[in-house]
Amino acid sequence: MFGLAIYLNSFLPFAGWVFWALFLLPDIGMLGYLVNTRVGAVTYNLFHHKGIAIAIYLAGYFLTIHELTLAGLVLFGHSSFDRIFGYGLKHPDNFKNTHLGWIGK
Fold first, then answer.
1. Residue 103 is assigned to a structural domain of this protein
2. Is the pLDDT of residue 105 over 90?
3. What is the pLDDT of residues 51-85, one digit of tens each?
4. For a Cys-Cys bond, which of 25, 40, 82, 98 suits 33, CB 3.0-4.6 Å?
């Protein structure tokens, strides 16, 4: 899925480096953990949910809004990259507790 995001990005009218410049931006969702773990889980999952990423991508594609399409691809690519390393969607009790299991076990 990570490769798919890179491939689909090649069809957008932006320089290739733009995708990579924005690649870590979805991690802004971790700022919610400054409030507490429940808010952190919600904000993190909002920026790392593949369904949301696909919906944003499709909205941009069908509305011909390239910036929205790029945003969807960045979210999808970043989330897919995170899954490679075992970072899943967060449960509200602990940052390390994800839908893929505990991080680091």
1. no
2. no
3. 999 999 999 999 999 999 999 999 999 999 999 99
4. 40
Residues 31 and 43 sit within 8 Å (Cβ to Cβ) = yes
Cα torsion at 38, 42, 45, 49 (round to 10°)? Answer: 140
- The domain total for the chain is 1
Tokens representing 36 are 């507490």
- Determine the structural domain holding residue 88 and report its residue range: 1-10+35-94
CB 57 within 8 A of CB 72: yes
Q: Is residue 59 part of a domain?
A: yes
How far is the C-alpha of 88 from the C-alpha of 97, rounded, in Å?
A: 8
Q: What is the pLDDT of residue 103?
A: 87
**Quick check: is 77 in a domain?**
yes
pLDDT of residue 104: 77
Query: CA-based angle 63:66:71, to the nearest 5?
Result: 105
